[in-house]
TrEMBL record:
It comes from Streptomyces naganishii JCM 4654. The record marks 194, 247 as: Positions MEP for the nucleophilic attack. The record marks 38, 45 as: Transition state stabilizer. The gene is ispD. Residues 1-23 are annotated as: Disordered. Belongs to the IspD/TarI cytidylyltransferase family. IspD subfamily. This is 2-C-methyl-D-erythritol 4-phosphate cytidylyltransferase. It catalyses: 2-C-methyl-D-erythritol 4-phosphate + CTP + H(+) = 4-CDP-2-C-methyl-D-erythritol + diphosphate. Its EC number is 2.7.7.60.
Amino acid sequence: MSDESRPSPADARPADRPADRPATRVAAVIPAAGRGVRLGPGAPKALRTLGGTPMLVHAVRALAASRAVSLVVVVAPPDGAAEVKSLLDAHALPGGTPSGTWGGTDFMVVPGGDSRQESVRLGLEALPPGHDIVLVHDAARPLVPVDTVDAVIEAVRDGAVAVVPALPLADTVKQVEPAAEPGAPEPVVATPDRARLRAVQTPQGFDRATLVRAHETVTDGVTDDASMVEQLGEPVVAVPGHEEAFKVTRPLDLVLAEAVLARRRLNDGF
Ligand SMILES: Nc1ccn([C@@H]2O[C@H](COP(=O)(O)OP(=O)(O)OP(=O)(O)O)[C@@H](O)[C@H]2O)c(=O)n1
Ligand SMILES: C[C@](O)(CO)[C@H](O)COP(=O)(O)O
């Protein structure tokens, strides 16, 4: 896809940005080193296919679809970086681009670690200078729409140091005392006000220096990057997420992802 043909609300509003001030360059880190234990036995989750194409390829395409994203760093399973690089080259080349680029977006592959947090840190360490906004996006969210990516970028460009796409919850949520045995009854201790809760997705967008400081400072195990920035005492804001940015975690999510992809292909006529 050529740079010009990629839609991007973030770049399509020159009035927001004086002509003499270039847009801050955006890089994306895609942690893809997980095993996918909750999905069940098989290849590492990011390499499992959706509509015949590896989930990771969908995720890279989704980020590269934003005109604002100029570099994607893919964090591969620790012993799988060469395989992942070949896979991405194979899917990028039919588009007529040289190895190492995807349309107008460069990509690189680095080995990951034992946890998502470590994998993101390794991706950040590999980022060359010159990109002052960083997105972190799960390979396991292969169908995120480009408008969601651009909305996150736009919020960071507008001055937020950390941005999460988020959706209201459909279910009532209970806080419980977790049972020692799986399946045993768990005492309910509270029912948080659902109106104040959000389910958080990716890509999460950051001022690069703040995200790097968070990864250097926070040592607790966390499940997302924004919570590390919260621990620094820095503000995090939520923008509207998208239902199709759901995470492929359990087998039923794969069924849903296949259905969403099939509907898109039907609508796009291919
Ligand atoms: N050591 C790890 C663990 C996770 N991830 C990535 O973090 C994202 C979100 O993690 P999750 O959906 O939990 O993936 P897995 O860890 O693979 O899933 P599971 O917990 O079921 O094994 C995924 O894109 C996954 O590849 C990673 O890069 N490195
Ligand atoms: C980052 C994340 O996708 C936001 O919802 C989520 O926290 C990842 O959690 P996981 O346990 O690694 O799936």
